[in-house]
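Long-time lurker, first post.

We've been arguing in lab meeting about whether zinc ion would sit comfortably in this protein at all. Half the group thinks yes, half thinks no, and nobody has a model to point at. So I'm putting the question to the forum: if I give you the sequence and the SMILES, can you give me back a predicted structure of the complex? Inputs are below. Any interpretation is welcome too.
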Amino acid sequence: MNSVKSFDSLLKALIVTVALSTAAFSQSAMQWIDITAPLSANTPVFPGDAPIQLDFLKQFKNGDPLTLSKFTMGAHSGTHVDAPLHFIPNGKTLDQIPLSTFIGPVRIIDCSPNALAVDAAELNKHQWRGAKRIFFRTRNSRNHWMRDSQFHPDFTYVAPDAAQLLADAGVELVGIDYISMEKFKAEQPQTHRILLGKDIPIIEGLDLQDVTPGDYELMLLPIRVMGHEAAPVRALIRKP
Ligand SMILES: [Zn+2]
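Top reply:
Settle the argument with this. Predicted structure of the protein with zinc ion, as tokens:
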């Protein structure tokens, strides 16, 4: 009788422990990680693109009875999405891309620390096949370049041969951790044309400096601007 009782209380304790640890686990699994670059005067701007100006039209310290701001910037500011129309004549505008493209599993691949390009050889060093959405964490993140107002022309980019592999494999979304995915001053925007030509939107300007590579769930929501080729986004990931 005694041993039955103690077994019973042991079982109860075990159930409570399992319940508590399951709750703790699901809470940590719920935790979203923000991979959006902060928009500020320190956000790098691609040479020739519109400057980012975040101004106060009215503010309390000037005696105004309210705060009122005005944002002026290019559509490709900070973390943003490129829709096909960016480089494809009559290509899809951002509002024509289903939101389901931006929500779901994503694989974050940690590129070789000194890789200047994600080309086919670099891509194939990693487990990328089978992933629906792929974001590349490169030396751009390790150097914190999405938080540096100075533009770094030697940023790591995705080379056309890698873009072709991704497009041919049916990847639905590709992202990188600097404000462009194309080699700086490339003669032709081949990487953009390969991906956008297959209706694969491109995410640029991700802030992956604090992210551990691996598989995540992605929630990426672009501003609902109508008829344009790009817009800033808010991008979040969490462990599935
Ligand atoms: Zn862009």
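For your lab meeting: Residues 76, 80, 82, 204, 230 surround zinc ion (CB under 6 Å). The first helix runs from residue 2 to 29. Whichever side wins, do check it experimentally.
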